[in-house]
Amino acid sequence: MAVLGLLSVTLEIPDIEAGVRFYSDAGLSATVEGNRAYMRCETQDRASIVLVGGAPRKRIHHIQLRAERLDEIATAIPSLGGLVTDAPAGFAPEGLWVRDPHGMMFHLCEHPADSDLAIPPTPFEINGPGRIVRKRRSAIMPKQSYLPVRPLRLGHVLVFTPDVLASVEFVTQAFGMGLADRAQDIIAFTCTRNDSDHHVIAFAKSGGIGFHHASFQVADPDEVGRGGRALLAKAGLGDWGFGRHTIGSNFFHYIQDPWGSWFEYYADIDHIDDYSAWTPTNYSMEDALASWGPEVPQDFVHNYELDGAPFPRESIGSLG
């Protein structure tokens, strides 16, 4: 094993205040230090999203991964078309800084595993035909009984790449990850090889690299729905959801951020405990995005980080 999990994603953005407001509205806690904001889940003592203000437009800076055997990874990188590089100015020199063949930057570092999440006191249960598991109580309380939805952890990120299969080959060969599933050469999902969510890093085809979304786990599908509607009301931009993915099986609700990328609440994702016992599937494009849900926004898979593609944009083709 090499990469063990996802820690954070760092974004360069024009307006730090807008970024803090959006991610705070999404349920993260903010620590602001100058032109940087560190956004964390309340269950954790480290940032899941790092925002660097003052950029001319939004762009991904790097993805931070928890890893081991950094020396072995560093040795393999050049032969796979990547580059081991120095830490960018203002960032910690510890660990291993890597650019993939397309220029996407990763920071691999040794970091303790997160503590196990607490089991909710009243787990999500469904009464089904011939299987009554909830008796003599209501599943839903009055609206005012619920606290605002707070994400529990960063589960995965989806980034743009000009060559999906080449990006998959790099993270599987260089980082020791595994291909979970894909839909042709348009979108692919990679996991770690032990005790992993269905996907940790996903790739979508575009004309260049970029950030599509960060996905945060919440307690259950009800929280996906409540959190999504509440954030949409505050953000006032686009959304997609409530729905359920085919690939990964997770319930989702996406809300557009101030720069045209997305924030996802999710619950109930597939789990790969041992990658050696998993067989990836190559899905048709009809299953690439969802099993069910509302119509996909026209710009859902549009890379606003490309030159000449400012946000907002009136319309684009699907998966273009």
UniProtKB/TrEMBL annotation:
GO terms for molecular function: dioxygenase activity. It holds the Pfam family Glyoxalase. Transmembrane segments: none annotated. InterPro entries: Glyas_Bleomycin-R_OHBP_Dase, Glyas_Fos-R_dOase_dom, VOC_core. Residues 5-111, 153-268 form the VOC domain. It comes from the Bacteria. Keywords: Dioxygenase, Oxidoreductase. This is Dioxygenase. The lineage of its organism: Bacteria, Pseudomonadati, Pseudomonadota, Alphaproteobacteria, Sphingomonadales.
